[in-house]
Amino acid sequence: MDKILALLDGSAYSESVCHHTAWIAKKLNADVEAMHVLGRREGAASTDLSGALRLGARSALLEKLSALDEERAKLAQARGHAILEDAKAILDQDGVPNVNLRLRKGDLLDAIREIASDTRAITIGKRGEGADFASGHLGSNLERIVRTSTVPVFVASREFRPISRVLVAYDGSASSKVAIQRMADSPVFEHLDLCVLCAGPDKGRAMATAETAVAKLRAANVTASPRAETGEPEEVLARLVADEDFNLLVMGAYGHGRIRNLIIGSTTTSMIQTVKIPVLLYR
């Protein structure tokens, strides 16, 4: 059965990730795999204190350092289990019937690849464990996942709000066409109000491009309307999200136009930081 992979790190975004994951899973009738990954060095001392003490150090001190590292590792594992149990409680409360918990150690991307075969989508928070201390910094794993994922990546905002209005950034590129087709085929977008935006210097041409995408969505009985704006896409998108009460921003991860640069590269960070709503990325 298809599953949604929720990546959890115990940050302030983890609860929102769970609520958004539940929303998607119920739309798709999918199971949820909640995963927490312990880094290879997690639980270990930040520096190898024992290395500086080997020459002439008393064995008792080395044993204490070793015991301290072991205790840190145990605490990190216990924390990981607690994060996953909290996630399961939220997902259960939100009505997800099948939730599997997975604690892994090692590289995050390797852990994702292990279970990629039947993963329908990945959910992750915009920022990681340091979110409360560095509000302008995106999660360090986010771009790595977006670059390598073969399934949609749902980037959750800090708070969950019901999703009804969706802004779709469209530029006519191959990836944005794939995004439109997958949206047309997906139960996630049933009963939602979609606005397909194309931004560029020629408003008439932009409208024609947006209308092509809307026609495909409407053919699949998805409620959608076209919109064209002049200006820089990142500025237009940020303004519309702020002013018009959209609940979700959808983009293709690669494209041939300006919108492509929002996703991978310097503008990705800027865009995802700027908007205060979730972002769904398609490749």
TrEMBL record:
<feature type="domain" description="UspA">
    <location>
        <begin position="210"/>
        <end position="283"/>
    </location>
</feature>
<dbReference type="InterPro" id="IPR006016">
    <property type="entry name" value="UspA"/>
</dbReference>
<comment type="similarity">
    <text>Belongs to the universal stress protein A family.</text>
</comment>
<dbReference type="InterPro" id="IPR006015">
    <property type="entry name" value="Universal_stress_UspA"/>
</dbReference>
<feature type="domain" description="UspA">
    <location>
        <begin position="2"/>
        <end position="155"/>
    </location>
</feature>
<protein>
    <submittedName>
        <fullName>Universal stress protein/MSMEI_3859</fullName>
    </submittedName>
</protein>
<dbReference type="Pfam" id="PF00582">
    <property type="entry name" value="Usp"/>
</dbReference>
